[in-house]
Amino acid sequence: MGTGYVGLTTGACFASLGHNVICADIDEQKVESLRRGEIPILEDGLDRLVHESITAERLSFVLGAATAAEQAEFVYLCVPTPQGEDGSADLSYIEAAAAEIGPVLQPDAVVINKSTVPVGSTRVVERALGRSDVHVVSNPEFLREGSAVSDFLKPDRVVIGADSQAAAIRVAGLYVGIPAPIMVTDPASAETIKYAANAFLATKLSFVNAVAAICEAVGADVNDVMLGIGYDKRIGQEFLQPGPGWGGSCFPKDTRALARIAEDAGYDFFFLKGVLDVNEEQFDRVADKIARLAGGSLEGKTVAVWGLTFKARTDDLRESPSLEIIGRLRERGARVIGYDPAVEVAPAGVELAGDAYAACDGADVLAVLTEWDEFKWLDFDKVHEAMASPCILDGRNLLDRSALKRRGFTYDGIGRS
Ligand code: UDX
Questions:
Q1: Ligand 1 atom, smallest distance to 311 CA
Q2: Rounded distance from Cα 144 to ligand 1 centre (Å)
Q3: Average pLDDT over residues 301-314
């Protein structure tokens, strides 16, 4: 149920493992275009997998949940759980899907929560299904956008949360052929694992960005500092890249939701609130850096922004740090010209340029806010020529700063200058 990036990736990957998969969605146009093999998202390897599975007749698309659920042994719920008004997750899509499939499910079917849901949602689904002869299991996803297919097929672990050992074993059977440890636990623990994993990773990044701020003050280089701490196996080299703040469809929503879960449980998770505050501060800090490069004020200045998506190799703009920062630049009076290799429709407040050079035309500052690899290999003499003043804020420490300084650019990075 649900053909967003989680549902579509899950469906196509299970089909590639040899299972028969029917993907359902409530959006008629989406279903029709998926039937034609058109993939609505940029996701490495997904196109090929969907085409191959459609051709092998192991993957099909239908409108409405009930049609897909009638014959199913397993039903994966992969529908959105957006943030509700009070910061908690809105379960209305999950409940609606469960209520729709409840009456048509085969006895002994297993309904699986793949969407990120608050602890206790397994019970909510059980209630909405209105059936006591089917099992509800939690099997959270840990997919990164851009590498969702390889994350699914080569995960670090598979987590299954179930009250019924038999149902857990049946779900584990779906993953035969996947080289990863499978962990079976209770539903509440599985649901908590998902939130704790995302909040821990967000904490790591806020920590890195806070250390970057200190590096700037003491004249250290955050890249070297992170390399140095990452050699400690207990810390590890991954997920230590400083940036303009973290974003995307999961981290902000899940970190806020865990803070909210803690509050409801009577625990003041004050440092998780700090993790969120550091991230907001990071957006402000980057906007300040851009203003400084522009000479102090942004009033009447033009800022070129390379990178609008929340990270490279995705076309997703949800909770993108780049858009957060652009909002702040505009509040301070700047005109923003953006370019992103994966974005064709201009987000509000941004004029979209046809290519990276055109974005720099007459710009007072160039801000690189997403780490698209291709930005590294552009002709910076051409960029220099196009800009009104050659100043670069490298929000991902992506570019060759010595080469840029040699070419006459004023350069500022994150945690290094
Ligand atoms: C994340 C989790 O990684 C995944 O396990 C979960 O299921 C969904 O949420 P995703 O949202 O695709 O995946 O993005 P991820 O690659 O984790 O990056 C999140 C944010 O952190 C991005 O804004 C990214 O630019 C930023 N980031 C990541 C950094 O700033 N530095 C890093 O070293 C890594």
A1: 25
A2: 7
A3: 97
Domains belonging to the chain, first-starting first, are 5-185 (3.40.50.720), 220-417 (3.40.50.720)
Question: Residue 86 pLDDT more than 80?
Answer: no
pLDDT per residue as tens digits for the range 41-83 = 889 999 999 999 999 999 999 999 999 999 999 999 999 988 8
Catalytic residue flag (residue 250): yes
Tell me which residue has its CA closest to atom 2 in ligand 1.
Answer: 144
Kindly report the protein residue whose alpha carbon is nearest to atom 16 of ligand 1. Answer: 144
Q: Which residues contact 199 (CB under 8 A, 6 or more apart)?
A: 254, 255, 258, 272, 275
Using H for helix, E for strand and C for coil, what is the string for 33-49? HHHCCCCCCCCCCHHHH
- Output the average pLDDT for the chain: 96
For residues 223 and 189, is the Cβ–Cβ distance under 8 A?
A: no
Instruction: Kindly give the distance from the C-alpha atom of residue 409 to the centroid of ligand 1, in angstroms, as a whole number.
Output: 30
pLDDT of 42: 87
Name which residue sits closest to atom 34 of ligand 1, judged by CA.
239
Q: Are 316 and 376 in contact (CB under 8 A)?
A: no
